[in-house]
Sequence to fold (113 residues):
Amino acid sequence: MEVTGIVGNNITLQFTFNVSLTNVSLFGVYKKDLTKNNSPLKIDQFGKGTGKRAFDIYHTNSTVFWHITNLKLNDSQSYWLSMFDNTDFPKKSNVVQLIVREENRSSTGNLPL
Fold:
């Protein structure tokens, strides 16, 4: 999924899982670490302690919303969640591609003569 945001605005990214969210102990938000050969980099978490950004969790449809405030150009990235429960392996959500753009403030109207 691809979403577009504007610099300085807020945005909410939606992540879904193909499994139930009933026994979740932790969610981790990840993006690609461009400085380390695109390896996963955890940037936020929810569960143990509090996350840096807001999370909304909907158990009935296995959906998690993650809110980003004050978007910056360098927030343009691929994001995903990993869910850690009582099993041996984390489960990965869908990947969301966020594109952040500067607001277009140009006018296409006619200039006064």
In short: The CA atoms of residues 33 and 72 lie 17 Å apart. The chain has a mean pLDDT of 85. The beta strands are 2-6, 11-16, 26-33, 39-46, 55-58, 63-68, 77-84, 91-92, 96-101. The two ends are 46 Å apart (CA to CA).
